[in-house]
């Protein structure tokens, strides 16, 4: 009876030149930049459709509307149904999942956040200067 080795991970070895290049890069730039060099993150499955979605989000924010995860997902589904986008991504309408990890990746790719003030909630009265003086 033989036992299986569970969770055995091979060590990765690097050449001296590679190590020196990383150290040099870290000295010239930030220390953490050397760790993330060459790893831009996950690429988009539907880059052209995501550009349309980004433009839609910016448009909604300019109008003062709040944009949440659900509205982003629904709008992306609408965009994937458009004929222009279906020509680029024929199966995109059916394969698109729009889960939380996609939304977070999309927002990171376009430097978006949900916690942005879209409008001022309370307007100040016109005669505020006079009221302050009286106070």
UniProtKB/TrEMBL annotation:
It holds the Pfam family HTH_Tnp_Tc5. It comes from Rhizophagus clarus. GO terms for molecular function: DNA binding. Keywords: DNA-binding. InterPro entries: Homeodomain-like_sf, HTH_CenpB_DNA-bd_dom. It comes from the Eukaryota. The keyword Mitochondrion does not apply. Residues 37-116 form the HTH CENPB-type domain. This is Pogo transposable element with KRAB domain. The keyword Transcription regulation does not apply.
